[in-house]
Amino acid sequence: MPKLPSYLAMRVPLLDLGEQYRALADPIHEAIDEVLASHRFILGPKVEAFEKAICAYCNSPHAVGVSSGTDALLAILMALGIGRGDAVITTPYTFFATAGCIARVGARPLFADIDPETYDIRPSAIQECVERNCQLGSSGQLETKRGEKVRAIVPVHLFGLCCQMDALHEVSERYQLEVIEDAAQAIGAEFRCEERTAKAGAMGEVGFFSFYPSKNLGAAGDAGMIVCRDEGLARKLRTFREHGMGPRYFHHVIGGNFRLDEIQAAILAVKLPHLEKCAAARRDAADFYGAEFTRAALTEKIALPCEPYRDRGLTNHHVYHQYVIRAPMRDPLREHLAKREIETAIYYPLGLHEQKCFTYLGYKKGDFPETERAARETLALPIYPEISREAQRYVVNAIAEFFKVTPNRGK
């Protein structure tokens, strides 16, 4: 592979949190110092204040701070009483925790394939999953052919783009299933649902976020949040996050240690007011990529991210947690970019139905063709609010170079 002239070479990380931290360093340190001086490290006033701020941001009546996005889903499943003898429908193209939590409570994950353009779970595939795997039991409740009660759907708003929630709600209402929104990657993303604009996580009865450091709203460690409409469910969730305790040392249910640290809440509260500006900067970067890929005549070689809601009058139609392209010769392209010191990532290299730990579910290769194709072809390019246009041009030019050197590797 020819070497780029030294004056053109640069290193482009997938994510750089340095500039964001430098801009907010003083208020973050002040917030941390306040926590240290208070000696309130677990579920104190900073957690309560951040919960209220999330309620206001998401237009949700209740928010419950938890220790991670994973623990958020685990707590929701436990609070809804989903467990052994139950089944939950979700996508096989997502981070492991989505299906892992379903399995951890003893329920069976049922997979439905994704839309090939958005990578989100496809509502019609959920219907196909029901028709293929389920039947109405004697009580009128949907059951798997093994006899498990189908209790919920967990749609994942992947890469910062909301699922088709209107069509998904139609399916959930038809079969009387709970909808648990996995908005771990999509805080702030919007969808027009039931003639109103709603934010990811707050379009159903319950949803959750992850504040893992690389997320659009990231903590300095693990942290998560649940939002819900029902006051009774919110009370349950607060009980479950403290080992099922209430009052102190009296345990009515078996919960877990799912508490949000006070320091993490303090840091997140400093960052939250800047989230909209950061989302806008990510969209600007995505638009610039699109224009540059078009200028370089690469849109016939690679597939750019889908923006199905752009023309619906939504500000946050996509919040670009990741900028994911599709390239049939993905692995050689990634190797080429690595030689140019451009960092990329593969989300995800294997569908969950092919993971060894889920062999017992009985799925096989070929069961979810769109998931498997996405696993082979998708590649995340560098994107973050502070990425320079120079760095983006370098990425695009390196991709153009790859296809110029190997023109037979087109779309």
Mean pLDDT equals: 94
SSE order, one letter for each helix or strand: HHEHEHEHEEEHEEEEEHHHEHHEH
The radius of gyration is: 22 Å
Read across the widest sheet, the strand sequence of neighbours is 1-11-10-7-6-2-3
Number of beta strands: 13
Task: Outline the biggest β-sheet.
Answer: 7 strands, mixed
| CATH homology group of the largest domain | Type I PLP-dependent aspartate aminotransferase-like (Major domain)
Helix content: 25-40%
Count of individual domains: 2
Query: How would the global form be characterised?
Result: globular
CATH hierarchy class name of the largest domain: Alpha Beta
Q: Can you tell me about this structure?
A:
The chain is an alpha/beta fold. It folds into 2 domains: 21-273, Type I PLP-dependent aspartate aminotransferase-like (Major domain) (Aspartate Aminotransferase, domain 2, 3-Layer(aba) Sandwich); 275-405, Aspartate Aminotransferase, domain 1, CATH 3.90.1150. Helix content is 37%, strand content 14%. It is built from 12 helices and 13 strands. The chain has helices at residues 18-38, 45-58, 69-79, 97-104, 123-133, 165-175, 231-240, 262-271, 275-295, 330-339, 369-377, 389-405; strands at 62-66, 86-90, 108-111, 134-136, 142-144, 149-154, 178-182, 190-193, 196-199, 206-210, 224-228, 323-326, 378-381. Helix 4 links the parallel strand 2 (86-90) and strand 3. Helix 5 (123-133) runs parallel beside helix 6 (165-175). It starts with 17 loop residues before the first helix and ends in a 6-residue tail after the last helix. The mean pLDDT is 94.
